[in-house]
Amino acid sequence: MDPKIEIEKLDEQISSGRVKSFKEVSDQVLEVCRKITLSEHCYVAYVDPVNKDSVGISFSHMTGACQYYADIGEARFPVRKDGSYGGLLGYSLDTGISFYVKNPKYHPAAHGMPPGHVPVDQFLSVPVINNKEIIGQIVLGNPLKDYNNHHLELINEIADIYGLVIRDLIY
Predict the structure, then answer these.
(1) Residues 127 and 166: beta-carbon distance below 8 Å
(2) Do 42 and 158 touch, CB atoms closer than 8 A?
(3) Crossing angle for the helix pair 149-169 and 22-37, nearest 10 degrees?
(4) Looking at the 3D structure of the chain, how many domains does it have?
(5) What are the pLDDT digits (tens) for 18-47?
């Protein structure tokens, strides 16, 4: 499997209109990201243009509550009063920096996992940026092989594609 070809296929499916809804696009982004990074878990979100919450549209189930969020169609992580998101999940949203880490619990932004959360032994996060504004996020976890800079580049490329969709459908 050639990751570049997978990304080209994703872009073509989205631009051709074969993927109709925002949820379908988000699901496709999730699947391609997981496939090209060999990741067990993925979270694909947009930033709500009204209240700035991070809204997960497509995500693998990592807690018991995930089925509830899937049933209502979103997992919403509210922005804090100071405008930040906090924690490891919010780090790329707060900084605009793409990163990966092999031992997430030792990252300076980490503050623990919610009860019942699947353990995460590696973590990769990419903000989705359009016109210098952070409008979404793609997060991956628990790959079969260690994340590297190439994975970060690939997911950044997908984030660029997803950013155009968010811009056109949400903003």
Answers:
(1) no
(2) no
(3) 180
(4) 1
(5) 878 999 999 999 999 999 999 999 999 999
